[in-house]
Write a structure and sequence with these properties.
Layout lengths: L1 E6 L2 E4 L4 E9 L6 E7 L6 E7 L5 E3 L7 E5 L5 E6 L8 E8 L8 E2 L3 E6 L1
Parallel strand pairs: 2-11
Antiparallel strand pairs: 1-3, 3-8, 4-5, 4-9, 5-6, 7-8, 9-10, 9-11
Length: about 120
């Protein structure tokens, strides 16, 4: 089993920054990638960013490219999402998720952390 816990959300003004953390525990060895997703009220969950465990390649949605940075610690068990120049449209619940074997099959999800950006 895998457990994911997100933290770092909160209320910020537009233009400010937040850093989210995702701590993974359990059977995480061999994880292919970790991703961040978000869901705004009344909208579908959308991909934000991901990082491959091996090699550290990163991927971003167009809406956050250049403003958000995904990274991980040396153990690979904690993944961060540095969010700069936040906009009101970045508001939502942010989830981290694990893709165990590739193919963007995110089988494990955290509970989410709320990010609210005021204008």
């Amino acid at each position: 089993q895998v457990q994911l816990v997100e933290s770092g959300g909160g209320l910020v003004q537009a233009g400010r920054s937040l850093r989210l953390s995702c701590s993974a525990s359990g059977r995480t060895i061999g994880t292919y990638a970790t991703g961040w997703f978000r869901q705004a009220p009344g909208r579908d969950r959308e991909f934000v960013a991901s990082i491959r465990t091996s090699g550290g390649s990163t991927y971003y949605s167009d809406s956050v490219k250049g403003r958000f940075t995904i990274s991980r610690d040396r153990t690979g068990n904690t993944v961060y999402l540095q969010m700069n120049s936040l906009k009101p449209e970045d508001t939502g619940v942010y989830y981290c998720a694990l893709d165990p074997g590739g193919g963007a099959s995110y089988d494990y999800w955290g509970q989410g952390t709320q990010v609210t950006v005021s204008s």
